[in-house]
Amino acid sequence: MPETRTLPVRRTRRRIVAALATASTLAVVTGCGAADMTRQASPYAAAQGAKTVTLSVQSWVGAQANTAVAGYLLEHELGYRVDTVQVDEVPAWDALSQGRVDAILEDWGHPEQQKRYVEDKKTIVNGGDLGVTGHIGWFVPTYFAKQHPDVTDWKNLGKYTDQLRTPESRGKGQLMDGSPSYVTNDKALVKNLKLDLEVVFAGSEAAQITQIKQFAKEKKPFLTYWYKPQWLFERVPMTEVKLPEYKEGCDADPEKVACAYPHTPLQKYLNARFADGGGKAAGFLKKFHWTVEEQNEVALMIAEEKLSPQQAAKKWVERNEDVWRPWVR
Hints:
This protein is an alpha/beta fold. It has 12 helices and 10 strands. Strands 1, 2, 3, 4, 5, 6, 7, 8, 9 and 10 form a 10-stranded mixed β-sheet that branches. Helix 1 (about 60-75) links the parallel strand 2 (about 50-55) and strand 3. The model is unreliable at about 1-40 (pLDDT under 50).
């Protein structure tokens, strides 16, 4: 979504967070509704002696795909009761530290929280790579990049202000972002690179996808914040605009950022007590590791075929036993 996301991140995307309308009210991996951790804690997290697991699920569809497949296998192969809770990225770390959730399956990089909870308090442990590398960037539709190849260099964006202008961009070119709740570097980038752009929020990932599809249908130019992996690239080909090269530490000060977003190997994190005493469930989540293509296969079923996360997980599990069988041993 797709904050982090090693940017103080998802100061980058997904400190993006959020959305696919497909799941703006998350369907359950198990059958009970997903709780909003800002309103209630899961009754199953850290339940002593009970075969229960509580997973934090972010609202972008890739994260939903992870949780759906993990939850399905925990239930149907390992016999656990699974609960899911929807919570934004930074609060999810607090919930994980407190044992209100047992695991986060897709983190895009939060250095402050990692230092506080993993290194200092030791209430959270790294659960290993998810297997997917995330990247946030600015993108234009490939049909526009083919017409104007120089648009893929940020220094040339000013030449296309007129074509990128929208009624919402106040006379400037529009840089479309998703939800205002996403923590991104975009406003700082526009200011520090002295670009004639206005960051305009679509409202959610779902709304952003709808707008991108409409622009593409009409073959209109657009500039958008977006991220990989994301299934939409298979429907609307987009080409990344090259921002100043990312170098370690160039994003350390949110007000002075003037570089690209990094490529981030996405990580899993577990509550320390759960990691130590969570039995087969904890062992399974540490082993859970798949590819961009596998994640996108499930995400497409949720977003495009309109299957529930549980239905999509069931179909994927039935087709890919050779992939998941080692996870449950």
